[in-house]
Queue: 2 jobs
Job 1
Amino acid sequence: MLKPYFTNNKPEAGCDEAGRGCLAGPVFAAAVILPTDFFHPLLNDSKKLSSKQRNILKSVIEKEAAAWSVAQVDNIKIDEINILNASILAMHKAIDGLKLIPKCLIIDGNRFKPYHNIPYHCIVKGDGKYASIAAASVLAKTYRDEFMLNAHKDYPMYGWDKNKGYPTKLHKSSLSLFGITPLHRKSFNLSEQIKINF
């Protein structure tokens, strides 16, 4: 059972990201403020849900959340500042987009940087513990999946419709055959991934 909030009686935003371990594409992040009485039986860590379940929840969250926002940081910026900093930047950008100012932030994981002096708490595996972080994980994942499905139309040989940019066998073999695209993260040691030099 997911906990409804970390601190009571104040607007609290849950934050999570999607796409940290991918070889290609942006990292996405979401921030969600849920009503304290929000409940949906499907809501959970997005990794434990099917694509169909995530898309059902996406519509529910966007309709019923007190506020929500999704942001992305592209692969060029990831290469410039590294994936951890890019993930945190994406979360900051998502919080920027909220129509309500949260009084508290709860962050999935163990690393974050202060945001405008708003108190924050890092929670390892928070997307399986708190409803607002789980909701943020659903939005980040569904928006990123949609981005990669659209990118697949331009670069079908990498199988992004299935692997969403993660380092699967097909993705690696296609890198060997076709090289990198403008969406690949050059700082992710792609030559090590496929044992060739670009």
Job 2
Amino acid sequence: MSLASISILAGQGRDGGVEVVRRIDLVPGDTLAVVGPTGSGKSVLLSDIEQLAEGDTPSGRRILLNGRAPERSPLGLVATLSQRTNFVIDTNVATFVATHAACLDKPGEDWPNIVLGLANRLCGEPIRHDDPLQGLSGGQTRALMIADIALISDAPVILLDELENAGIDKHAAIAALADRGKIILTATHDPVLVLMSRRRVVMRGGAMVHLHERDAAETLWQERLRGLDEIFRNARETLRGGERLTLGGIL
């Protein structure tokens, strides 16, 4: 189906109280951060979207597609990248990518090279064509899946759960997905990822309690935090590569 919008209609929190945020509408190209303490209901909100809830989940929320309740769940609507991504199939990386492209009837491109080109820009550990899927590290696995979702998958809605724990370049990952005009929801504790989204919904007690739009002050904070995050990333890569930090790097 052609997706023009997805809407989240309020349900209730764990105490049975009606959610303060009554409705969130998202269109292709939108990004929404889902924030709140551990246990506040972030993953449940993502799950409601993945299931296209019809008031039949513990939250009581309803999900609309193009302004109406779907008559059936469209295939391939949502792609989810959870904190635990594991492969069951016993094959190598190139075969997996080529097979996925063939399943989606996308011939004529060198998909393994294209997908691995992006994946290896996201991940510090090189992924090779003949690497077994089940031998990839957690960071390699998530980098490969983000590249696959961005370049091959037709899913218009992307759900990301704590991308900051993936050990990858999160800025490049979000940019790669957003450039494809997908709707992206990311549950995160990372302030840089939060402020990369124009809007954020705040969860508390299983309920949506605030919906904020990034303002001018937060845009300035975004740039400042991104600079600090880059310093942290460079220091991590320096130490991980066996080198030493010097005073010249911070003065």
